[in-house]
## 1
Amino acid sequence: MKLVGERRALSAVIFAFYALLYFVLGMSNGSEFTRALYALAGVYGLAFFALVAGYFWARWYAVGVALYGVLTGAVGLWQVGPEPVIVFLAATHVAAALMLWGDAMSASYDGQTAWRERYHMDEPAVNRLGRSVIRAGVSLPMVLLYALAPKSAGSALAISVAVLALLGFRGLVRMKTWGVLALGAAGATLLAAAAVQHGPATVMPAITGGLVAWAVLPFARPMLRFVARG
């Protein structure tokens, strides 16, 4: 499937739609969830802007955010059933992910040679980074929702996790080792928080921490191998 420009435009429209939707909901909500809605608007807004700007990591990140929406829709279908809003949510995110998939689309972003040469990236390193950025795109909305949820908003733990995750993602796409370490620290903090809690309160930090750890996993073996060699 070609039509690269058209697919890129349609996927960008989907991310722009959800960025605007969550922003408007945040403005009109007036509840404890306002900050979480603004955070989701920022997540989708970044996906839209990065795709339009042509950042090499944009396709990976946008696919990750789309997969987050697919997971959200799947959970909604399981819990509530095929309500029109949930079906629309799931369908649009599936469409965005599919439109950004494939080698033809990759050529406009991560397939470019300039950034690979600048950072001295071979194919295995590119694949490793791609997997990590996609997984970070899935987990980042979850981290921000956990950090800004009414029960945890304002706590030192929530703030530290959000800061570590955001800094980690920035460092990751700039090929900085500290970015991977920051993401790993965010995941470890969430898993530790889940371990000391009881009942339903453990679910959110456990799932979110697991997703963040999943994002770091592609770099775990090379880093351990480097430490062992040193």
## 2
Amino acid sequence: MLTALAFPLRLTFKLLAFAPQFYVHDANGTAVAYVKQKLFKFKEAVTVYSDERQADVRFQIQADRVIDFSAQYNFTDTQGASLGCIKQRGLRSLWKARFDVIDDALPIFDINEKSMLTRFFDSLFGQIPVVGLLSGYLFQPAYEVTRPGGQLVMTLTKKPALFEGRFDIELAQADKPLSAREADQLLLSLMMLVLLERSRG
């Protein structure tokens, strides 16, 4: 459902919103998704709608456990069929965000944060009163999506912004094109990653 989009895609969200939510627009400025995380759930639950009217549900994302450390986030479509999942790599993710995109119990993509130093300074400055408000403008974490063999498929890059979060998703020039299922899996994975990393400005 998320294929044939005009890249880059832009994800934007308000840092001070009561419920975690963000908008997805394509390169033409057309709204392609509205993502909202449910509050007061023992397990994290996210709904992907076609737009902010929330009338048309496209996908669901559900955590497999209450504590999100090394949790697995499962994707389902409107019929309840599984579309795989994304799983954080536990302790290694303390230094750089690292995720596996999994389908039928096999890792099919890796998502890796490019710079450990950017993560360190972003987290450090984010804890300083007043100055921490600028961390979202000074430090822009970036993530690379690759196949197990190392082929670059997509990138997710945080853009400078104050009082809101902005991320761009770029599609790489890959030798092997993405299938419709893979495109949905990757975009859902990056949406969940943004929700998990949103506290970093």
